[in-house]
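User: I've been trying to design a sequence by hand for this structure and keep getting stuck. Would you show me what you'd pick, starting by listing the structure so we're on the same page?

Assistant: Good idea, let's start from the same input. This is the structure you sent:
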């Protein structure tokens, strides 16, 4: 049986993650407040950021940058700017 959370990103009840995917206190906050759908959207953004900025995840600064971007995206409602990426215009 899947769990439901009030997703801070979607601002609605949605299917929660099956287990904590990120370590520590932030990971617990994500587990309790972020849906599978929102996490999947973050994963896409994260991959674009890593590729765009050529981040080395062995570098603590790169990990700190990504973690801040994740918090901004999931909890603060901030759009992640990907340089050189143009969303399709309407």
């Amino acid at each position: 049986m899947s769990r439901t959370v009030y997703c801070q990103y979607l601002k609605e009840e949605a299917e929660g993650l099956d287990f904590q995917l990120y370590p520590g206190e932030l990971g617990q906050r994500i587990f309790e407040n972020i849906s599978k759908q929102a996490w999947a959207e973050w994963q896409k953004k994260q991959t674009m950021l890593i590729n765009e900025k050529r981040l080395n995840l062995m570098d603590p600064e790169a990990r700190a940058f990504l973690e801040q971007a994740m918090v901004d995206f999931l909890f603060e409602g901030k759009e992640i700017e990907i340089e050189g990426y143009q969303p399709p215009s309407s």
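That's my pick for every position. To get oriented when you compare it with your attempt: Residues 57 and 63 are 6 Å apart (CA to CA). The radius of gyration is 14 Å.
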